[in-house]
Specification:
414 residues, three-stranded antiparallel beta sheet, alpha/beta, globular
Length: 414
Amino acid sequence: MDKLQDVIELLKEYHQEHIIQLLETLEPNKKEELIQQLNKIDFHQMKELYENTKREIEIKENKIEEINYLDKAKLSKEQKEEFDKLGENAIRAGEYAVVTMAGGQGTRLGHSGPKGTFKLDVYGKGKYLFEILTENLKQANEKYDVIIPWYIMTSKENNQETCEFLEKHNYFGYNKEEVHIFTQGELPLLDTNGKLLINKEKKIKEASDGNGGTYYSLRASGNLADMKEKGIKWVFIGGVDNALLKMADVTLLGMAIQKKVQIASKSIVKANPHEKVGVFCKMNGHPKVIEYAELPEKMAEERNNQGELKYGESHIMCNLYTIDAIEKISKETLMYHCALKKNSYLDESGKEVIPEEPNSYKFESFIFDAFEFFDDIAILRGKREEDFAPVKNKEGVDSPRTAKELYEKYWNKQ
């Protein structure tokens, strides 16, 4: 009863009285489950996040400058050989691990399962996105005579289905002992009045807390400790939905080692000023990625003396870190971005409401916001046709059709 009373006081303090009404209708075991969930929620944090939705994002242009990078295609033969040798030696020594962020569903693609289980229609019979990534890693293993440890981050929503899928396909021939699956964190959803949403199970509706949660989830799941135990020094983090992702690029790794940086990333040139990608820059002397929605139009169109877009280096979710950098970031609190989304919920009478318009805020941290904790980042400019074939939309740009074309064109040349 004391526990219940404490929770009721908390809900009153944060104006969530509709949850008190829900608690009164639940049978004892359901009530206990909800109380446990409520006790894990940081209500002060949720209140702050809601208040932030009312604030305008301000980017002061005078604090922003363009970022340095090396163009892979323009490296001298000696430079490339030096980078490749350094990178290859680190991988051969067993100092390299890979993380794949696979928490998303394939909803936007019209696919009902986890995104990694989507089959891309390549070469007639098709390949699953997980299969494409596995082939990429297996090639590196063969080339460098090693088995790269592979950490896959799922969400609570798709974890079971992902595990079952990989088991069913025997991990596409990857050594199962070197595949480690963990889940990312979640945050409650709030309606536009700041009220917690209730889901069909009569609990608080939550959603994954964004790819920025990867760092903390790696530590909380024990996988960061596992990497350290294995003697890992470098960790690559990429998404599940890029059919041309190079997860073991020795040039990128060697560049990071040679430049003695803690973080590195691969970029490609923005297709046009208004392409929906985040772009690299330096803000207040620190590396940063500005999301396309937050980049003022004037800055998006600005060009440098060479006639190139001043802010034209796109972040393509191809990031590399020292193990120390991951540990450092995992103890920091990243900022949260909010997105207005459509989410179904139970109303006060217990009836499910399926909204036609966006009705609630989802809060996410972004992986690249961690770059600001460092003084420098090494950026290697790659090529779209070699490095970036995202599968995001059902049709049009970044769709299965465009990814298929890029994938087949690339591999036909190899």
